[in-house]
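Fold sample X.
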Amino acid sequence: MRAKKQALLLDLDGTLLDTAPDMAAALNILLVEEQRAPLPFVQIRPVVSHGSVGLIRLAFGTLEDTERQRLVNRFLAIYRDALAVHSQMFAGFTALLQQVRNHNLRWGVVTNKPAWLTDPLMASLGLDTQADCIVSGDTVSERKPHPLPLLHAAQLIGLQPQDCLYVGDAERDIQAARAAGMSSLVALWGYIAHTDQPHAWQADGMINQPEQLHEWLFA
């Protein structure tokens, strides 16, 4: 029998929010600016969880540091200006988060996305005032897969790590949770490439849709 959890912590891109349409649009604008052909969405989507550096690598290949940083900066500027055009919560989360509240559980976000993007994105969807904590990629001195962001989130909501369940769609999410002493689940609806092997990430489970969190939180 699983121990009852008191908090649900979520990765942002590819777990709570479907941000791929807006990030893909920004990447393709950059490609056109650089006189390159846009990439199909199906090619971009699995890379979104790897952030701006991963997307620039996908679009432009191996680059020298200076050129890579130039493109990353330009990509982020384009993305910032159209941050929440099509981004939305994955289906099922509106009802799930209401049930989290109804059961007096806490929930929050732990993401590697920098706060200057995370905060306006959460605000645009009205989630900034609902979440009990928001830990961004620059909130503390380390980023996932380091456990510090998750430990900080637990501290913010006044709980022990073992009382929290963390859900993410990348191996770094599971590594961070395991190192923090939290239970973890792989969000299989997220941005997972066909070359990824989530069954080998040593999570406590894998779920295909947010509704399956019910048995982990409310059973």
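Fold sample Y, listed below.
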Amino acid sequence: MVNATIIVSVYNKIRELELILYALSAQSYRSFEVIIAEDGSDPGMKEFTEEWNKKNLLPVKHITQQDSGFRKNKILNEAIRNSSSEYLVFIDGDCIPHSDFVKSHFENMQNNTVLCGRRVNLTKKATRKISVETILNREYEKLKLSEIIFSPLNRKNPGENNNYNNNIEEGFIFRNKIMRKILTNEDEHILGCNFSTGKDLLIKINGFDENYEGPGLGEDSDIEFRLRLTGAKFKSVRNLAVQYHLYHEKTVEEPKNMEYFIQIKKKKEFFCTNGLRIENGER
């Protein structure tokens, strides 16, 4: 029996997924399972996961659905239903976890609590340097002084040709409780690529709302809003559960999601009807 389930949401990013799986195979904490939640039905992804499992490094479970537009929330719910542990960690298919990533989530978990992490946004140049070798020798975890100095400037000018990584301070690990209290917020917000919680909390709100179709809000802001309505607590694991976001063009959020989210906030109901189970029965 595993103690945690890592749910990796992916869409047509096989190279990135391979890097993530190698990083997960080198975690300092090992009692977890991995579910690849594919929002699509790419034959190449199926072939890749089958070949990966032959390596006997880290077994993965691959679940998929028909490619009918952006339906991340739907496949995340399916992943929850397929999970065998009572604790769930969510990451995206373009975020490489630090070798202590799972350990940091698991060691800080608490009842009725959501753990919220952040990510280092890599430049295109830095992303090209990430390889299986740099992951296995943990080179990707090392930060340069020049990158630290210039990180604040990158927020103002984070162009793809910038040589320095954005939000590099998110890559530091602070374990001292006094230091963490000074440097991090106690009450954080959910970022869909780096958060964890007990399965019971997600069942309580009926999981992710599948009425969100298209990127933005549904996999983080909506979940956070509804969990707060239940009285759930939110705890920061910034500078503990570190991950590195591979460069890609900025995703454009679906405007209809904001319109729907405004309606949800007006209703102030934590239970969504189109989620983990149908309103009048189990799926």
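Sample Y note: The longest strand covers residues 4-10.
Also: Strands lie at 4-10, 32-38, 60-64, 87-92, 95-97, 113-116, 120-121, 194-198, 233-236, 243-245.
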